[in-house]
Amino acid sequence: MNNGKMLVLNDLNVWYTPGKPVLEKLSMELGTNEVIGLIGLNGAGKTTFIKTLSGLLNTFHVKAAWWQGKPLLFRDREFKEERYVVFAEDHSFQFFTFREYASYVAASYGRKLSDIDELIHGFHFEEYTDVLLKELSTGNLKKAYL
User: Fold this and answer.
1) What is the DSSP secondary structure assignment for residue 110, as one 8-state letter?
2) Which of 26, 88, 134, 142 is in Cβ range 3.0-4.6 Å of 12 for a Cys bridge?
3) Could you tell me which residue, 88 or 134, shows the higher pLDDT?
4) Nearest to 129 by CA among 145, 114, 144
5) How far apart, in whole angstroms, are the C-alpha atoms of residue 113 and residue 87?
6) What secondary structure does DSSP assign to 72-87, as a single string?
């Protein structure tokens, strides 16, 4: 059914208000090592699509979804561990420091936060680890979210 593709979606329909679809009958196949870009006008559904794949929206119906040859549910833990999304406009964690945010993310994935000092050093992030995320520049905020 998935023809050896990494991701297969058949007839994905997404809405915020019943009867007013944002995405309608979206189908796609993504092969291993393929890269795609989402291009469209404002309001076309690009962010809605990513939020749906990320398990953030539950107002959708999909005829068939496959990930690496297995049936896919967007909120499955196994799929969650295979992808990560950062939304530039997200201000949900603005009152967390980097260390608090890193601890939160690790816990949400059911993992212990290992020693991250090497990562902090590699990103030249030493002076920002205890700064509130809302006080970081856009570039440093992206580093924190990664």
Assistant:
1) T
2) 26
3) 134
4) 144
5) 22
6) --TT-HHHHTT-----
Q: Is 109 helix (H, G, I), strand (E, B) or coil?
A: coil
Euclidean distance between CA atoms 64 and 77, whole angstroms: 18
Place of tokens 């002076």: 127
Number of helices followed by number of strands (H, E) in the chain: 5, 4
The model's pLDDT over 96-116, given as tens digits with 9 standing for 90+, comes to 998 898 888 888 777 777 777
Give the number of residues written for the chain: 146
Here the tokens at position 66 are 């496959």
Q: For residues 111 and 77, is the Cβ–Cβ distance under 8 A?
A: no
The predicted pLDDT at position 17 comes to 93
34-63 per-position pLDDT tens digit = 988 889 888 899 989 999 998 888 999 999
* Confidence band, pLDDT 50/70/90 cuts, at residue 33: confident
* 64, 10 contact by CB (below 8 A): yes
